Amino acid sequence: MATETPEAPVQTDDAIAAKPSGSGFWLKFIAIAGLLIVVMIVQFLMLYFMFGESDPVEIDPQDPTFLAGETLDDTQTTEVDISPLFNCTNSMSAGSQAIHVSFNLHVEVPSHLAETFNEAKKAHKNKIRQTVNTIVRSATIEDLNDPNLSMVKRQIREEINKILSQSYVTSVIITDYRKMEQ
């Protein structure tokens, strides 16, 4: 009877009860997940009741208090002349050619800061002239050929504000611009 297989031992009810079935893990997992969900719902409700919905506020565009508010677009500006005429030679932009540039420089400042700007300009006039000359002398040929001179104007505005340690200048105006290649 070589083909006979031994019979498996019969398990009793006590053996089945003593053996862990693995259902305890899932019960703990479901309990913890349920607790987390309850805590999250409570937090959401607390935030909702604390901050709540904002009441829709209707803004009347004709309201005088709304119209009296000052914005950057509404700010009155004053043009200030940075004189005398600027003359400089740029030999970096066109290789072997030298480019002579001359122009008048004006800046726009908010009207309420015009007095303090003029005082600061007088105190730092040589630094401002040197910086403007350096910017123009180091400009590329593309920057000097730009009809708006936008890169040069931006650099001048940033550097003047940096020298004066305050944002006085809102825009730069270049007039009587002459560029002569030699």
Task: Summarize the SSE layout with pairings.
Layout: H1 13-18, H2 23-51, H3 64-68, E1 77-94, E2 97-110, H4 114-123, H5 125-137, H6 141-145, H7 150-164, E3 171-181
Keywords:
elongated, 182 residues, 2 domains, alpha+beta, 3-stranded antiparallel sheet, Tetrahydropterin Synthase, Chain A
Q: In words, what does this structure look like?
A:
By secondary structure, the protein is of the alpha+beta class. The chain folds into two domains: 22-57; 77-181, Band 7 domain (Tetrahydropterin Synthase, Chain A, 2-Layer Sandwich), CATH 3.30.479. The protein contains seven helices and three strands; from the N terminus they run H-H-H-E-E-H-H-H-H-E. The protein has helices at 13-18, 23-51, 64-68, 114-123, 125-137, 141-145, 150-164; strands at residues 77-94, 97-110, 171-181. A three-stranded antiparallel beta sheet has the order 1-2-3. Strand 1 (77-94) and strand 2 form a beta hairpin. 11% of the residues are buried. The mean pLDDT is 82.
